[in-house]
Amino acid sequence: ARAAKEALGHVKTVHASRTQAKPDTPPALRPAKPGPPNRTVYDAQGAETLPGKLVRKEGGAATGDAAADEAYEGLGHTHRLYADVFGRDSIDGQGLPLDATVHFGRLYDNAFWDGKQMVFGDGDGAVFGRFTASLSVIGHELAHGVTQFSAGLAYRNQAGALNESMSDVFGALVEQYVGNQSAAQASWLIGEGLFTPEVQGQALRSMKAPGTAYDDDVLGKDPQPDSMDSYVRTSADNGGVHINSGIPNRAFYLVAEALGGNAWDAPGRIWYETLTNGSLSTTATFTVFARATAAAAVELFGTDTKEHDAVRRAWETVKVKL
Ligand code: ASN
Ligand code: ZN
């Protein structure tokens, strides 16, 4: 039960016209078109040594092992979201190989990014099943790598909750993109399908309604706040990074709800721009981040546009001062 609880705690494109006087962007400054992914999946075979035994490389046949094949496919889907929608080539924007290890440890109730690769446990079978079963979890872990190579948000206090929220946002977007779900159709759940039938709960977290994802005898009630009124001040979990992420998660959901359509379009572009344009400091607070999303909305869509309004209103609803 304690291990399970810990898991919850963690658990412009410019078209140059021919007649334009301005010269094209010089080749050295032009971002390279994203290439295909370069995935490698390893099997730790129940040990906690990384990376483990290589079981599938890019282009290799399915292994027949569900965890290994889910990891391979999930990394591919996530790479495709960044490439197709945001023009980003992998975790570092430069085609970084995607490495993942499955069957990490025994009855291991978690998944993580270790600074270099993704790692997935099998779950204890009582509370959690295998962590590769949820595409939003695979997208969440890969997004930790993207954050590391972009804004570099520190993993503590509000910056840490923003780091966690970035992973939930892009984890949710991968699932929606692959399922071709609009913001209105999406579940906005992170880690759906991870709990065994023994657990009273639908997922690790809900971005739409933070604090309602589960309520169980073993796990207790989902502790996520849905506005600054219930912000949790704690020294546990690096200052409650997996708890307070509920606040920026809901802000993203509210932007997507207000704008309708697909969340990876305008909302995703605004958040991606904020994360990657170099304007955030590594210790950004919720207010600093909120202002940066408003600035990104203005930059991409213009002042007082519906996108700019949706962003301002969302932060107002979750009571983050702009
Ligand atoms: N599943 C957690 C996460 O990626 C693991 C952790 O907190 N290190 O946030
Ligand atoms: Zn995380």
From TrEMBL:
Q: What is its EC number?
A: 3.4.24.-
InterPro entries, alphabetized: Metalloprotease_M4 (IPR052759), Peptidase_M4 (IPR023612), Peptidase_M4/M1_CTD_sf (IPR027268), Peptidase_M4_C_domain (IPR001570), Peptidase_M4_domain (IPR013856)
Q: Which residues form the signal peptide?
A: none
Gene3D superfamilies the UniProt entry points to = 3.10.170.10, Neutral Protease Domain 2
**Peptidase M4 domain location, by residue?**
40-148
Query: What PANTHER family does this protein map onto?
Result: NEUTRAL METALLOPROTEINASE, PTHR43579
Q: What is this protein called?
A: Neutral metalloproteinase
Which species is this record about?
Answer: Pseudarthrobacter enclensis
